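Weekly modeling sync, notes
Attendees: S.R. (lead), two postdocs, one rotation student

Agenda item 3: backlog of single-chain predictions. S.R. asked that every request posted to the team notebook include the full sequence so nobody has to chase files. The rotation student volunteered to paste the first one in as an example of the format we agreed on. Action items at the bottom.

Example entry:
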Amino acid sequence: MRFVATCCVVLCVASVMVCAQTTSIGMRGGYLHVSNESTIPVIFSSNDPDCGAFSNGVSPGIYVGLTGDYAVVGDALEVGVGLTFQQRPARLTVNTEAGFEVLDPLSLKYVPLVRENVFESTLGYVAFEFNIRTRPLDDIPIYIRASFDAGNPLVSSTYDQTEEIVSPDAILFPDGRKIRTTGSGNFPGLGTSIGVGGGIGFAYDLSKEVEIAPEVSYRYGLNSVSSSATWNQFWIGAGISLRYRMHEDETPPPPPAPEPEPVPAPIAEVIPEPEPAPAVIASISTTPLEIRETVVTQTYPLLPYLFFDSSSAALQPRYIYRDETSTFNEKGLPRETLPIYYRVLDIIGLRMRSASASKLVITGTTDAGESLSNDDRIALAQARAKATAEYVKNRWGIAADRLVVRTVAKPTNPSRQTYIEGAAENRRVELSSSDEALLGPILHTRFNEYLPAQARHDFSTLIRNPERAESWNLTVRHDGKVIGSRSGRLVPPEMLTFDLSQEMTNELGPVTGVSDTLVATLVVQQAGREPATAVVEFPVTKTVSNYEVSRLSLIVFDFDRSDISDQNKEMMQRVVTSSTGQGSSAKIVGTTDRLGERDHNMELSQDRAVSVESFVRSIAPSLRIQEVKGIGPDELPYDNSIPEGRFYCRTVSLQITTPLRVR
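Predicted structure, as returned to the notebook:
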């Protein structure tokens, strides 16, 4: 069949080259939406229909190629050939039971064993194409193209097949995994794939020789791509082509007749144009700034996990510190969650020095996919636990018999490994102790927090001759020290918004009086002239809040769970009991990480918030709870590109506000 197709192409090209008026060469490429229709059996060697077969699925692909076209009747009719690489992937799934039943350890009943089978293949075809293209209307640059193609998987012909236990959830394969590979290699019986198609595009001339054309197309497969199973491929494509037309040499026009020499005109005096007026800052104004001082007590729970790179047992640099242990103090830690978490080994080491009888259990784990054998995974998990123990022992002088090293192939409560982030979360060391104080939270008590009455501060500007402006910069200072700045290109906006960060107000609050002054300087740069500058002074006032705030974030919500751990219940008991008084009110907000569907995460965060509400009401039934809501992943408080950031987002924030004076 391949030989016949090649001969057809050669004969067609030879016939049209005789009468061709214009030859075009080009390249094209784009996206393929590949539809796979198959009856590939789940088990190749079995003819039992109960074993299941993969049916249909769609996958994204690409194509790139070279083309040559010959104009038979100008743009009205062109024929051509092409050589194209086509990435034609497939991802097919099917759930099978095959009559197997297993004992569910949770319900202690025999239930069907449901497995999800996944077939994935990326076929790399090299195909010859024969095309006919026509533009039916001269005035409208829209063309229609018909094509015939034949190709073979010369670049890639491999596949991978896996199966995963879907139900019951607690059952694993004999090798201890929930997912395993059931087949891979070259897919049997692949041969020549033949198809026909068509497309419609818009031809736009960049110049006399160069044409660019976006195009949408459809291809219908005439045969199965494999002789071992029925597997047909169809696709919808969207791409773009670039063509270069090679025109025949044209007879040059005769040279123009010489023009009579012009009579020289009288020389006129050149009067220079006046130089444009410079940019001028006509005005800049703003309103007073109010900062509110609030007494805050905040509890920072410790995440008892350390995370590792894939197949590595080395502690990551963010957990390692070399400052003097004699100067380390929990009270000196910053009032930020992640910087506190990164000192978790030093916090534990300091506490173990004080509590000489306490022991730390260090459990190393893997993501259950980092090695081919279970023995290798156990060895890797053990190396991670030992590296952690060595750091605590060497840096803090803790006796080796107080550091209990344990290993498991994967965590007891693993994150779901259908997400690549889940595997990163399972490559960890877990820390635990019978001494609850060893992993207790960090408590910063009754410190002053400074918040702006409004998070945005506006400046009104008026610039004359704004077309001269190239860039601008606004700087705000207090007693000569820069508090914050903003800059941009061209002219500043008429309403210039200055966002006030927590870091900015915390720096400004302690150094300002009850009534003080800030200085804003606006500088506009312009070409060939000195920059335009304007300065405005505006008042800043500091008020004291009538309320004291206590905050607690509950972590260690396991992946996709809303039940509260005993450690979190104990923290809530302590915080609620010590923070509530006459007139106290509370807000409870649940959040999730970004993994999974948003609707599910919104429901999960609401469930977490409601769980906390129920426990808080059991502790303090008279506490006025103003708000209980889940916001899912809409406002992520921490970086979700790192495992610890995602864990700290699986939280419920509890804020208790108590009047300093009861009115």
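Discussion: group reviewed the output briefly. The first helix runs from residue 2 to 17.
Action items: rotation student to repeat for the remaining queue; S.R. to check formatting next week.
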